[in-house]
Design goal:
Blueprint (H helix, E strand, L loop, with lengths): L9 E5 L2 E5 L3 E3 H8 L7 E7 L2 E5 L5 E3 L4 E7 L7
């Protein structure tokens, strides 16, 4: 009887929202659309590590996912001036 292979799960955060995936690599576009539920044309995904940040400008570049990664989303839409 073969043991069922358990899929590895990766947990990461977007702001304070906990997200989970079984994929070891995701693109910034997928994280923005599927996990943050925002428009990638108007937002930038940013990896936060301590006091350093990394912006993902290439939406289709694969990002290696590790447990506990923290991301934030910056809105790039111009603010209307009243």
């Amino acid at each position: 009887m073969e043991k069922e292979k358990k899929e590895k799960k990766y947990h990461f955060f977007i702001d304070k929202k906990k997200c989970e995936t079984t994929e070891s690599h995701l693109t910034a576009r997928r994280i923005l659309v599927e996990f943050a539920n925002v428009n990638p044309a108007e937002n930038v995904l940013v990896f936060v590590h301590g006091d350093q940040t990394t912006e993902y400008k290439n939406l289709d570049e694969p990002i290696e996912i590790h447990n506990g990664m923290k991301f934030t989303v910056f809105n790039q839409k111009p603010t209307p001036v009243s």
